[in-house]
Specification:
37% of the residues lie in helices and 27% in strands. It is of the alpha+beta class.
Length: 83
């Protein structure tokens, strides 16, 4: 198998990454919060929005990194009531 063939196994459409990140990570941790998951073409995921429990923000970034195809996470989540 060629190097490009190996890479194709890890390249996933950004819609798939966003759906999986939203379903498997964010909705479980922040079920009642307003949030958004965006994915750039290079597999960079941005988590943004307002969440109720700020202690779960670092965990959400770590869990999102475990989604196959995610290469980096930009966490812009803020806790409700914070400025």
């Amino acid at each position: 198998m060629s190097r490009s063939g190996l890479l194709k196994a890890f390249l996933r459409p950004k819609e798939d990454l966003a759906t999986e990140g939203r379903r498997d990570v964010v909705e479980h941790l922040f079920a009642l919060s307003r949030h958004r998951v965006d994915v750039l073409d290079a597999g960079v995921v941005t988590l943004s929005g307002e969440v109720r429990d700020s202690s779960l923000v670092p965990l959400s970034a770590r869990l999102t990194r475990t989604v196959e195809g995610v290469v980096d996470v930009q966490c812009k989540l803020t806790a409700k009531g914070s400025t």
